[in-house]
């Protein structure tokens, strides 16, 4: 009987609730005096850091703090003296300091966002839902195993029809990362309509998909 190869792609996907919420935001300023703009942004940033650290410090009973990590990610100053039509602008000087806050407590995360939306000079850039490294590695391992089992099941289905036994000859990981975090971008305002009181924020954590994709070659005998 002539040799035969069966090549299939096994796939799997595991859904898991997020364990961390990473909030990205920036303190920005603009004006006609460069030194004044820089000082205002720096002062607002210092006040903001004090508020974040004092509000989300570890609890007195020794419980884990709601904030996992808080850091500054970038500092920028620049000058743009004309607009897109090459006309002079009244506020050519700009400054920006960006921050990242990683929360394990999503109720506290919601509170932080509500406060930041009203904080002077602050723009919220985005919110990223993730897993811990330990959970991510464990689920990635489970997803790879499930993908291989899926490939084996496909090959066995074909072998049943053609009447041959199959054995694995080659396994090729397709190289795609099995970890896909959902990202929820946010706007700086959240009122339902202009002039109305803002609605409560609905920041439902987005589930995380951990996926695997593997190509498997079987030898049919």
UniProtKB/TrEMBL annotation:
InterPro entries: 26kDa_periplasmic_antigen, SIMPL/DUF541
Annotated Pfam families: SIMPL
Gene source species: Penicillium coprophilum
Superkingdom of source: Eukaryota
Lineage, top ranks: Eukaryota, Fungi, Dikarya, Ascomycota, Pezizomycotina
Protein name from the UniProt record: SIMPL domain-containing protein
GO annotation, biological process: DNA damage response
